Structure formats: C-alpha cells, structure tokens
What does this fold into?
Amino acid sequence: MLAIRLIERKRDGGRIGPGEWRALLGAYVAGHVPDYQMAAFLMSVYLRGLDRDEMAALTDAMLRSGGALDLSTIAAPRIDKHSTGGVGDKVSLVLAPLVASVGIVVPMMSGRGLGHTGGTLDKLDAIPGFRSDLSLAEARAQLERIGCVMLGQTGEIAPVDKKLYALRDATATVESIPLIASSIMSKKLAEGLTGLVLDVKRGSGSFLTTLERGIELAETMIALGAAHGCPVVALLTAMDRPLGRACGNALETEEAIQALKGDGPADLMEVTYALGAEMLILGGLAPDRGSAIETLKGAVSSGAAAEKLKEIVEAQGGNPAVVDDPALLPQAEAIELFRATRRGFIAQIEPRAVGRGIIALGGGRATMEDTIDPGVGFVITVKPGDWVEAGEPIASVFARDESGLRAGAGALRDAIRIADEAEPPLALISHRVTREGVEAYAS
Amino acid sequence: MLAIRLIERKRDGGRIGPGEWRALLGAYVAGHVPDYQMAAFLMSVYLRGLDRDEMAALTDAMLRSGGALDLSTIAAPRIDKHSTGGVGDKVSLVLAPLVASVGIVVPMMSGRGLGHTGGTLDKLDAIPGFRSDLSLAEARAQLERIGCVMLGQTGEIAPVDKKLYALRDATATVESIPLIASSIMSKKLAEGLTGLVLDVKRGSGSFLTTLERGIELAETMIALGAAHGCPVVALLTAMDRPLGRACGNALETEEAIQALKGDGPADLMEVTYALGAEMLILGGLAPDRGSAIETLKGAVSSGAAAEKLKEIVEAQGGNPAVVDDPALLPQAEAIELFRATRRGFIAQIEPRAVGRGIIALGGGRATMEDTIDPGVGFVITVKPGDWVEAGEPIASVFARDESGLRAGAGALRDAIRIADEAEPPLALISHRVTREGVEAYAS
It folds into this structure.
C-alpha cells in the first residue's frame, strides 16, 4: 500500500477498498504515513466523497484500530443516544439515567466541548469527585451491575479517530458527512450496541445548519448502522435557540437533576422523552411512542430516574448527595440579572453567541488545551416568541467576578434580539428518519 | 492570515487574493504554516482550480520569494526554451548554443531528471568538470561575456517553489495545470526574459498525455507570460516515442554534440530548428520561420554552433575537448546489441518503459536522493513504422555490467513492440499556440 496511490485514486474520484482502508489507517497510526499525506487524502475525501461501502469499510477500520466493549453476555437491550451537539444540550444527563431506570442498558461514551458547543463530559466533571476516565473493563463491570455508565472516549476505543480528528480540525476537513458519520459510528459500534438513537441538531447553532445536510447525515448514519447490524433512528431537533434554560456546565447539570426530579423546562423534557421513546421502542420495551412516554414519565414521578443518577454518580466516585442538593455543585462567585433592553417579542436567542459568551466567561474551550470554570454561564428564562417589557429580567449571568458579569451581559446583548415582530422558531422536533425514510414528526 | 481560512475558502471554490498568496507562501517558507495545512490547501487547488488572476498572483508571489537575474543592461533579445520533459529530450543542449551563436542571449535554467524523464542538468554533468551550480552573479557575468549560460535552479530563485514541489510530489498534487504553470513561469520570469518558447510534449511518455491538456497548459503559460510582459509561444511535439536515438545522460550529450556538428537524427533536428526558429522570430532576428531555419542551419554548417558549446563548457569549468572528441565523456563498461525478436513493423517504442529501463540500469532517479551512472542507457536506431527482420540489430544497451545488460534488454523487450501492422505515430510537431490561438503546425 503506497499512500500516494490512494491519494491519487481518491483525488480522481475512485474507490478505496476495505483492505486499503485498514492498511492506510494502520500505517497512519504507526507513523508510516505522514500528516501531510493524510491531509491531502482527507481533502480529496472531503471534495470527492465516499460511497456507502467505503464509509462502512472506513468505519470498520477505525473500529478495529482499538478495543471494544464486549457486552454479548448482557441480555438487555443496549442502546445509546448521540447528539451532533449544541448549546444548552444536557439531554444525555437526563436521558441516560432515565431510560436505564426502565431497563435499557446505556453504555454512553461522551466528549468534551469545543468552540460554541458544550460537552457532556464537562457537565459531569462539575459533580464533585465524578470520574469519567474509566477503562473498558470498569465500564463493562458497571454496566452489568447498574445498567448505565457515562464515560469519556478512552484511548482504547478507535485510537486512530483521535489522531485523524486533530488533523481534520487543522486542515478544514471536519465538515464532511462521510468523515463525521464514520467517526461517530466507529465509536458507537465499539460500545457493543443493539441500537442507537441520533439527535441531529439543525439551525444556526448546529454543526450542519441546513435541514438537507442534517437529513443526509441521519441517512448516512442509518446506512452505516445497518451495514454493521445496529439499527439507528434519528430525530431532527431545533438548535436555532439553546435547549432548556441553563447554559454552562454546573448550571446544566443542575437543570438535568431538576429535570430527573420532574422539574425540567418543557422543551428539554419534550426532546428527552421523544429520544427516550425511540430507545424504548428500539429495545422492545414499549410498543409505541405513547406508551413509551408514559413509562418514562412514570420513572420520573416515582423517583426511579433520579435514583438511577445517584447510583451512577456513586459508582463513578462522585458525591451522590448532589442529586438531593444541587447546591453542592460548583457555584459562581458573581451573579447578576440581565434585563430586556426594550419591550417587544424575543425575536432570536442566537446559540453561537451564547456559546461564545460561555467561552468569554471561562466556561468553554476555544482550543482543546483550555481549562474551564464549571460554575459560570447563563440561565435564560425566555424563549423566542415571548413578549417582554423593557427592564424585565430575562436571564441571569453567572460569572467569576465583575468583569465576567460585564462580558456575560455583553454576550447576551449580542445573542438576544428583541423586536416588534418575531418569526416563529424552528419546530422543536421536526423530522424522524429511519431505514424506511424521512417523516414529519407529529408531537 | 489564518491558513485554515484560506484552505476553507479554496475548498469551497473561492478565490485567494494577491496579498493572501504572498502571506501564505511567506508563512510556509518561514515554517509558520505546517506541511499538512499546505497539503490540504494544494489538494483544494488541484480539485477546485485557480483562475488566471490567481495564477498570476501565485506566480508573482513565488517570483518575489527569491532573487532574479537583472539583465536589463543587455540589449540583445533574452529568450529561453522550456520543455515539459520526456525521454531522449536533449533539445536544450543543442538549442541553447545554436541560438546563442546567432545572437540570442539564453539564460537557461534547467532541472534534474526524476522518474522516467531525464533532466538537462544530468546530461551536462556528464561533461568532465562541468559546473552547473552557478550563482546569479556568475550567470549574469557569463551571459554578458558569451551570451549563454546553462545552470541549475539555484536556491536564490523562487525558493518556495522547491519546498512546494517536494510537498506536491508526496501528496499527488503535481499534475495540476495552474500549479505547473505558476511554478515554471515563476522561475522563467526570474531569468529576466524578453520571450519564452515552450515545448509541450504530448503522448504516452509525457507529463500531460492528451492534446487537450497540453493545449490548456500552453494557453495558461501564454496568459501568465502576457500578465508579466513576457511573450510566450508554444509548440506541441510528440512524446509517444523517444526523441532522437540516444536515451541516457552521456549518450544524449554525445548525440547533442553530434547534432551541433551537423550529424543529428532527423527528428531531433526538426524539433530543435522549429523551436529555434520561434526564438529567433520572438527576438526579432528573423522575419519568418523559413529564413530563421536557414540562419540556424548556417550556424551548424559553419561550426559556429559547436564553437559556442565549447565556449559555454569552458566558461563553466568543463573540458571543451569533449566537443571534438565525445569519447572523453563517461563510457559504459558493458555494451550489447539488442535484436528484433520477430519480423514486422515497429509498432511502438514506449517512452515510459525506456525511461524505467534507464532507472533500472542506474542512469535515472526513482527519488531525488538517488545518484546516477552517467554512462548507461540505450541507443535505439529504429523508429515507429520501420520494417525490421527477426534478429536484426535495432538498439544497443550500455550498462555497468552483465546484469545491467540483462536488465536493459528486458526493458527494451517491454518497450519495443513489433507487429504485423503499425498505427502511424503522432505528428512530430502538431500544433503551434500563441496569444492569437491554436493552429495546426505545417512543417
């Protein structure tokens, strides 16, 4: 295998075979293919694309580059959820304990935030003592015992993906659906899943802003799952505004805890129940969406869902008392109300601007090397379409100090637009995509 | 200037501005833009292309990255020839002394061979003592004194081109007309030319095998020359078989010397005179092709052309006696006739196979680090369309030893196809391209 021959072939629109993908990635991880050759290859892939067979082979090669969770001795359905990422997206923290409490085994592997989007791991890190750097053996033992684990991407899983992602990030080859889909699926397949539910965000705050690209990603992931015997269902959800009210790590963890205890914001609950219902149906634990949501609501009201989060936190070294008393989470030093600058309709709450505001407060990352302050962020209590009076409190800024308060207020002034009229926002959940096709989602 | 923004823009089909080209190349040479980012950028350029203004800006940025020959004090026409390269192409060695002997100033900068194609510098190196690594100051002094210099690409000229070429070679981004044209023109413009004649090879042994791509390159170079005030004329010539009889460094130098003394093969002379005539016309030293060729033939028969080669060799430290006695050139240890394997027509003499044969003999380079044996090669005395009898000598192999003879004979068996019928080869000179357009070439 000469890397340059594969670059030439992909450059000219040709196909790379399964053995060639394995050889190329193996040589890259071993350092025999230099970054500059892989960069030229990735740009060829970006511009020429991959067909379904090539994506399946690439996914397989990445999957085989590392270890995997062997969960074949666990009889229960093993189902995870993946989100393409957004602002205020704490769904994983609610969803994993919730569906685990009703019998789904959830081997959830998450990432850290980068740029304007947050990451589940950073939110979990806000819990005192919580350890997300489990080995595959530890994760497996915990799954057998309590049916849910929430861990970071270990070096054991698809190690080539980490090296490739860093290169893609530096060479403008991230936003390629074949590369995104293969990267996600290689990691998810390593979790030993029997099903996967995908939350594809759309709108200005999402990775793939258009509906068409979102559906293309969903269909690609569904095909990749099918090629590996893992059924995938996708929902397209709105990310033209933050999800829920809290934006910032500890603030979101607190909101997730409240949600598990029956006090979550309506939009967060609607998305969580919709995704959870798909997981229950995929796992054969509910016949239809209606009964699935009944089951999930029951787990919240009975306290079983919150109890499951306590078990997870305790199993991973964290202080389970945070579930009863979220004030044990890291707190901001300085808090200030943010008031409407004029009367009118909330016309827009721009998620990227909110995300940039969190970075400005010290609660997000511009580069992977940045450390973050878990306590800072925003709680935005209005939604697009709400009517507000001038001076009415519409948000709170949580900061480290006075200058943080000023930076946070400035970010909210950029993010929140108030006008005489407001266009309706995107439907919270607009489409459902399965192997059978795309359908409008009827709430 | 953030390199990643330029990669993104070119990836998406956008344009790079003149200041951005200068900044990008400057940062690359300084090591601030890593090879992997430049590789992704080059692949974007390969697949998205550059418009004429971008090519002119890139050429200008490469030209400005280094020094140049300031020949403005030389009143005579300063004209060079560039060939896209082939097998047996020793035209430069004949043409430069020939046109210099009739009054054209020729600041000829050449390269080394790589892969199946040879390089003029390697042929010059076969002359004992010859130095091609002159400084720009030395080259200028020699031009003022004898009107011709034949030197290698010095680090003073377009230094970024050397670094970029090595990267393109490793990332399958060589065969891009915008990158080829900008690279050639940046170096040629640094020679301070008043005109340039281009020999664009076509056919299986050439770089751009199709007529369409050859014409595209010619038109691109003509436009780039026009943008920099340097008129360019191109001839499309055949490289579906080697040019002349000798293939291999010292063998080709010997053939060039014989050509200057009036004893060159017909095809070599026809191409040399045609290119020389364009140089004389561009330089205003002849009114038309007929009278230009008369002038050139006169310089051969009078001995002035061979005398000019002696002057050049002597000025650059070589032994001028090689012109009178080519036996002073390096000689092969082992020589053997190669005979026709059957009777029939010579249907093909495949230049790439001949070029690979020279590499197998030790007379060419697979990588730029290889050292070469100047004495080895082939003299092929037949041409496509010739009728041969079985066992008739049709070539000689010049090798280092017995095993070289066997390798050489094997290469010729691959290269030379004898059949009952032969398709006519490509016209030796098929088209002439100028700013006015493309015209069929009438010999």
